[in-house]
Amino acid sequence: MFVRKVSIPFAARSVLQRTLHSNRVLYSQPDNSKPSEAKPADSKLAESKSAESKPAQPTPVDSKTPSPESKKTQEPDDEKIEYFGNTRFPKFRAKPRRTITPGDAIGQATPTVKPAPQTLKEQAQQKWRDILSPEKNLESRARIIHDIGHSYFQDIVDLRDNGDKLFEAPKQLIRSSKAHYLPSVSGKTLAGQTTDVIDLCRGKTTLLAVNFNKFSEQHTNSFIDPFEAAFAGSEDAQVVRLNIEENWAKAMVLQMCLPYLRRHTPKDHHANYLIHYGDVEGLRKSMGIANSLIGYVFLIDKELRVRWYANGLAVMSEAQSMVILTQRLIPNKKK
Prior knowledge:
The protein is an alpha/beta fold and 335 residues long. Helix content is 39%, strand content 12%. A seven-stranded mixed beta sheet has the order 2-1-5-4-3-6-7. The termini are far apart.
């Protein structure tokens, strides 16, 4: 029989040799996975007797590694994650509500100083300086990070879990020596005049109502109605409404609805109804605005200091305190 020899290249031959060598080493090692052979009954009996004669040694307990029972007791119920049905999507949980202590001074520590009017060239130069400024870039970065971390439904969940009232309003005025000043917010009134909220509040005792949406109007109206009933026709007391829209898309809708808003607002209120478009993060922090779905009212004296504040739907005691405190701020005119 004729057998033909096949020539194998050197590289292939070396690979084949290493493979065969590894297979020999693998099969030469004992197989530990095979079940152990059955021991005779006498050896099993002897092993059981020796195990019974030995005392049971306690297992060492490591102080660093807690037992499963302690782990169960240490885990609070708030840390449990709830999911939507049988899915693995966790349910959204509201963050703890951060509110101010009733009676604390709110606002900015110093009065607002209006900058001098600038030309278009000066405004462009200032804008370019802000773009190149590291401090301004850090502020914008912090604002972007805050916006990313704040969910659109955060205020809705907070309202559902904690209610539509942050706290009950204080029954006393903030002392004039400790009171802070009203921040500046510019906008356009329903009468078509571009002005600032501090210009509207200067010189009179003012109840400032701040709204972010239609839902919060019922909150501020619960304070405005008794205020207007008590001080109707007074020249030293007034109501100023501030409507804020931070979302640019909603701002476009609000601009289209301005004719409807003018028709349903009394004409004598148009001059004191201010609309602001844009971010008001500074106003939120300084005035203690924790949820944009809630309405807020602030009692401002003639020197633009915040002397009293409330939020949510007014209760009877809050409405009475508001009227009494406003009467203290209005000077008594001698006849």
